[in-house]
From TrEMBL:
InterPro entries: aa-tRNA-synth_Ic, Rossmann-like_a/b/a_fold, S4_RNA-bd_sf, Tyr-tRNA-ligase, Tyr-tRNA-ligase_bac-type, Tyr-tRNA-ligase_bac_1. It is found in: Cytoplasm. One of its GO terms (cellular component) is cytosol. Its main location: cytoplasm. A motif ('HIGH' region) lies at residues 43-52. GO terms for molecular function: ATP binding; protein homodimerization activity; RNA binding; tyrosine-tRNA ligase activity. It holds the Pfam family tRNA-synt_1b. This is Tyrosine--tRNA ligase. SUPFAM superfamilies: Alpha-L RNA-binding motif (SSF55174), Nucleotidylyl transferase (SSF52374). L-tyrosine binds at residues 38, 175, 179. It catalyses: tRNA(Tyr) + L-tyrosine + ATP = L-tyrosyl-tRNA(Tyr) + AMP + diphosphate + H(+). Its EC number is 6.1.1.1.
Length: 406
């Protein structure tokens, strides 16, 4: 479908659109006025991971197209837990833990969005401001009557859990009602007309649209993004080493750069569209590079994604470190390092740097011939590495490198 508004054209060209509730009406609205749209993020950890990045980027696109994004932090809904895509209930957090997580997560959004008081400036709200004040019986009477158990049982977030015979608490069952109420509140408080989210949020978004129509007669809209998987079919944001966190305290700029640099060849063009501001014409040029030229495209992807999150200087340092480590055969100073005190066992070095999850895995990697010290293969898993004034470079395969320091 072709769109007239710059907003939907931008989202379509960059690959963000999976479903829309009323494409023609939203397209017309986006031509006529500034559209306020939101996405909710629960604060279950001090950092979001890269699986949330497409949602952060779509808010950035909303602002780039001249509209106003709302970052809705789930200070209230985090106390309940979204069952969408989950096999089990979440561990409940205290209010203090949730507030600390929100403060930590906010710093990431400030990298991608311009906050302020202008008509298209982003704002950050917390649904605890209204959910914590709800009175249970009046809420059930005024809002709960618009939801039927019959329909709620058909939503994937509920149906799949029940089909697997996994517990779904009454607390979690209420989540979809609370999320729908969020949309109603944001419509009233901030003139919000649009909710965005992942494809697993479609049912929740539709609930909010219907609730706004039934109670206030509001015309609300929804857009979902496709599930982002890698070319291998793996879920975005998960690696063998664990989650790819967005906060620097959880994952360094170097490791973040490496994550993108090591993506599959088939993912480069799509990821450039979704996760960077590189112009579309340049992306098409990079996609068309023959043979090993795809590695240049991967470097652009890694550097541009890292620049958005960590800043241009950190991205340039990561790129320079990679050049020193891979192209020149050296050891860039920004590689992850481990202080040894002068000696360290090979297995402790591999686990201490996070290259292996256990001594058993480290032993297997040594046996496979995947471990090198200063670019020389190592075959003895019992080796004790002596570290002098100069750091020792340790490598696992072709992509994981670190420094052992005294």
């Amino acid at each position: 479908m072709s769109y007239a508004s710059s907003l939907l054209r931008l989202l379509d060209e960059r690959g963000y659109i999976h479903q829309l509730t009323d494409a023609a009406a939203l397209d017309t609205l986006a031509q006529r006025e500034v559209v306020t749209g939101y996405i909710g993020f629960d604060a279950t950890a001090p950092s979001l991971h890269v699986g949330s990045l497409v949602q952060i980027m779509i808010l950035r696109r909303l602002q780039q197209a001249g509209h106003r994004p709302i970052v809705l932090m789930g200070g209230g809904t985090t106390k309940v837990g979204d069952p969408s895509g989950k096999d089990e209930g979440r561990q409940l957090l205290t209010a203090e833990q949730i507030n600390a997580n929100i403060a930590s997560i906010r710093r990431v959004f400030e990298r991608f969005l311009t906050f302020g008081d202008g008509p298209t400036d982003a704002i950050l709200l917390d649904n605890a401001d209204w959910l914590d004040r709800l009175e249970y019986v009046p809420f059930l009477r005024d809002v709960g009557r618009h939801f039927t158990i019959n329909r709620m049982l058909t939503f994937d977030s509920v149906r799949l859990r029940l089909e697997r015979e996994q517990p779904l608490t009454f607390l979690e069952f209420n989540y979809m009602i609370l999320q729908a109420y969020d949309f109603l509140e944001l419509s009233r408080r901030a003139g919000c007309r649009l909710q965005l989210g992942g494809s697993d949020q479609w049912g929740n978004i539709v609930n909010g649209i219907e609730l706004g129509r039934r109670i206030d007669g509001a015309e609300l809209y929804g857009v979902t993004t496709p599930l982002i998987t890698t070319a291998t079919g793996a879920k975005m944001g998960k690696t063998a080493a664990g989650a790819v966190w967005l906060n620097a305290e959880q994952l360094s700029a170097w490791d973040y750069w490496q994550f993108w640099r090591n993506c599959d060849d088939a993912d480069v063009g799509r990821f450039l569209r979704l996760f960077t501001d590189v112009p579309l014409a340049e992306i098409e040029r990079l996609e068309a590079l023959p043979g090993a030229g795809i590695n240049q495209a991967k470097i652009v992807l890694a550097t541009e994604t890292t620049a958005l999150l960590h800043g241009r200087e950190e991205a340039a340092r990561a790129e320079a470190t990679a050049a020193a480590t891979f192209a020149d055969g050296g050891a860039g100073a920004d590689l992850p390092s481990l202080a040894t005190g002068g000696t360290v066992t090979l297995l402790a070095a591999l686990t201490g740097l996070g290259f292996c999850a256990s001594n058993g895995e480290a032993k297997r990697k040594v046996a496979e011939g995947a471990v090198r010290l200063n670019d020389s293969p190592v075959a003895d898993p019992a080796l004790v590495v002596e570290v002098g004034a100069e750091p020792v470079k340790i490598s696992l395969g072709k992509k994981r490198h670190g420094l052992l320091k005294r």
